Amino acid sequence: MGLYEEAKALQDEMTAIRRQLHEWPELGFELPKTKALVWEKLTEMGYEPQECGRAGITASLGKPGKTILLRADMDALPMKEETGLPFSSKNDWMHSCGHDTHVAMLLGAAKLLKAHESELAGCVKFMFQPAEEILAGSADMLNSGILENPKVDAAFGMHIMSELPCDKIVYADRYVNASADKFIIRIKGRGGHGAMPENAVDPLLCACYINVALQEILGREISGKDLAVITVCHMESGEKENIIPETAFMEGTTRAYSGKVREYMKKRMEEICVGIAAAYRCECTVEWPFGVSPNENDPALQEEIIGGIREFLGEEKVLQNPASMGSEDFANVSQAVPSVFVSLGARVEDDSKVFGQHSNHVLFDERVFATGAAVYADTAMRWLKKHA
Fold first, then answer.
1. Cα(295)–Cα(339) distance, integer angstroms
2. Tell me: the pLDDT tens digits for 166-219?
């Protein structure tokens, strides 16, 4: 029986794991039930799992030598599910990005690889990661030594996608995801009566001009060849129709593929915000609470791994797609070791039920789990055989 057929034999087991996780989604670093299930399954397979960082789990398999890391993220999103599935979330959160499926598929791959341990030409290291949705989990695990003991030489990750063709592996050439940096802009003026604005300093008016001016960075200062986005998603100020407020608040994200463009946007945003605030007699601060670099495929490793997937699945099951402006904190891994990150299409057959990631109606075709688990396992075995 080939590896793909072995993965298909695990389909029901992976589906059950996914549905159990889906019913009890957890957020950020607070993943007690998720961690317990992963730990239990790995232990049952004969692994010796270890904690890594605040809520991560790792385990290793094979023998000393070259090491490849396989990663799955585990956290959900703070939104109410409205899919109507019989295994819908039993709390107020939801696995609307599919991280429950990632856990199920990587556990499936772990079982496949355990059965083929004697054939491994080196070491496979598993990374079950928390807090991807807040772009904090991979950095925490890296800081806690996930890439050491044994030292990781290459890494491979996968993300299920609800709108991509079902059962297809999809990759982007080099840049997979854009950087993402959250910004918070705080503006301080002087409150007053709405009928006498001359006696106040209006921070809301200042915020409006800042919002418009930020878009000029994209339109007039960054080359059209460099894709970048600045989005203000939350503006808040005032409480009543006849009171000029004292403060205004804005927050959003910047995104780019180029590290140079990423830093330029941050510098110019600070200059523009402070300058416009001064012109409108306000004070202004810009904060950057968290961010992540672009998620980048190593060119040589991408050619090798995508070639291997084509050989394993067949040419017709591998597609190339443009990069996404969405972010992915696997980027921290990709900046540390040669890495490849791909997507797994899981579009459902009924077009009326197709929704994008982060929708409270999103569905994933569970039949792709065998493909995901088999690709994880075959990629690791193939890479180790070549680089032993």
1. 9
2. 999 999 998 999 999 999 999 999 999 999 999 999 999 999 999 999 999 999
Q: What are the C-alpha distances in Å from 50 to residues 39, 313, 324, 380?
A: 8, 32, 33, 20
Alpha carbon distances (Å) from 140 to 129, 236, 303: 9, 32, 29
CATH (one of 3.40.50.1000, 3.40.50.300, 3.40.630.10, 3.40.50.1360) for 3-177+294-387: 3.40.630.10
pLDDT at site 190: 97
The model's pTM is 0.92
Q: Among residues 172, 133, 152, 134, which one has the least CA distance to residue 142?
A: 152
Compute CA 88 distance to the chain's CA centroid, rounded to the nearest angstrom: 22
State the architecture of 180-291 in CATH terms.
2-Layer Sandwich (3.30)
Summarize the confidence of residues 218-240 as an average pLDDT. 95
- Predicted confidence at residue 388, as pLDDT, reads 84
- In contact, 55 and 38? CB cutoff 8 Å: no
Half-sphere exposure of 67 (CA within 13 A, CB side): 18
What DSSP state is assigned to residue 24? Answer: S
Say yes or no to pLDDT of 1 above 80: no
Using CA atoms in the order 78, 79, 80, 85, what is the torsion angle rounded to 10 degrees?
Answer: -100
